[in-house]
Amino acid sequence: NLFNGKNVNGKDTFGTRLQLRYLASETLEFNLNLNGLRDRVDPGITTIAVDGPGFDLAPGPRQVNRDADEFSSRDLFSRSLSVDYDFSDGYALRSMSSYHVNESERLIDLDYTHEFSAILEATGKGSHFAQEVRLTSPLTHRLNFVAGLYYFYQKAESFQRGLGGPAFFLPGYHNDDIGEVITHSVAGYFHGNMHLTDKLTLTGGLRYTYEDKKIDFS
Asked: Is the dihedral of CA 160, 165, 167, 168 positive or negative?
């Protein structure tokens, strides 16, 4: 970047994952998963001028001339837990829980020049939680099945602001976009196999889902 002499398009990412398994007994098992991600990017070479005034400001093939200190950041974290229990008669019960959160932030130079004309600031954050409980019958039975209940909740928020600087034709002008989405969902399902004979099997399934979504945007 000819404006401040800094390199652009740098990327710094760090991720981690941890898995823990606990065998409480011959019939009870716990599995825990933790995941995290830290992502930092210095954007810059996204648009290159090939002719005209913009080309004169940064004539090199990998050069820009921008006053805004552009950046993009993202942080993610998730955790999940599964619990498995085997009954003595061959039935198996499983619980699966998961929770995920994320946050992001970025700043972009909208005029691509060394003048403070217009920039874009944006932030976002979200989270979601899911829970499922599932019962499985023994495969050796004439009728074997899988039945379960599922719940899901998600909330996502976003904020975006376009800001005009001294070089903009309306100095100090700003435009805000604010959004929020909330989702609730529940479901129940059943899938079964009826072995009519050694060579003939009847398979059927049913799932019912109810979802409510609320959106607020301005």
From this structure: positive
Candidate from 47-51, 114-118, 204-208 with smallest mean pLDDT: 47-51
- Residue 162 CB neighbours (<10 A): 17
In 66-173, where do the E strands start and end?
71-86, 92-109, 118-136, 143-164
Q: Please give the Cα distance from 214 to 203 (Å, whole number).
A: 37
- The per-residue pLDDT for range 197-206, each reduced to its tens digit, is 989 999 999 9
Query: Phi/psi at 84 (nearest 5 deg)?
Result: -120, 130
**From CA 37, how far away is CA 171, in angstroms rounded?**
38
Which of residues 85 and 46 earns the better pLDDT score? Answer: 85
